[in-house]
Design a protein that fits this description.
73% helix, 0% strand, mainly alpha
């Protein structure tokens, strides 16, 4: 894995682990449950991405992922939280989503996958952990009904692929794609926007 993709992976792992641990705490789970949810929320997306690419999941060979999760769990336990989902946690989850989209898309492109596969793998990297987290915590998965998480991830991944095709510098492409994800989700939350539902 390239240095930028690896760094982004670790950042996303930490962010998703904090959110997962915080939700598990709010659901009254014990320390074992908190750690499990943090792990599932933070490494599932990258694991599924690597499996689809025929590669060994990164956390099996890189100890830094475990360090990121442990630090995130400690942070979630120590940090005070007055609301079930505070603004900080929501912001951290959105930030993690943007980072994970960029990480997954870039990693897929490094493996010379077609552009459409890179977009799909970027989305998978970003949303899988949150989906499994909500299922295990027995809450309605946010991905399936609000906040356009999947849409923002797909738009961000598409932006990265387009900029990469235009030979824009990797750092600029990563920043632009991440901003797309964050802005789309932030706007959808602010104005309660979501995809149309069947009536």
């Amino acid at each position: 894995m390239g240095s930028l993709a690896f760094t982004l992976d670790l950042i996303a792992t930490f962010a998703f682990a904090v959110v997962g641990a915080r939700i598990a705490i709010n659901r009254g789970m014990d320390y074992g449950g908190i750690i499990l949810i943090a792990l599932v929320a933070s490494i599932s997306g990258g694991t599924l991405r690597n499996i689809f690419l025929g590669l060994t999941p990164s956390w099996l060979t890189e100890f830094e992922y475990y360090v990121a999760v442990i630090v995130a769990v400690i942070f979630a336990i120590v940090a005070p939280a007055k609301k079930p989902v505070g603004l900080f946690i929501l912001s951290l989850d959105t930030f993690g989503l943007g980072v994970a989209v960029v990480s997954g898309t870039q990693f897929a492109l490094e493996k010379e996958t077609p552009f459409y596969s890179a977009i799909l793998l970027g989305v998978i990297t970003a949303v899988t952990g949150g989906l499994l987290r909500d299922v295990l915590c027995q809450v309605e998965p946010i991905l399936l009904h609000r906040e356009t998480i999947g849409t923002s991830s797909a738009l961000g991944a598409s932006a990265y692929v387009l900029l990469d095709w235009l030979n824009v510098a990797t750092t600029i492409s990563a920043l632009a794609a991440g901003i797309v994800v964050i802005l789309v989700r932030a706007v959808s939350i602010k104005f309660d926007l979501h995809l149309p539902r069947v009536k």
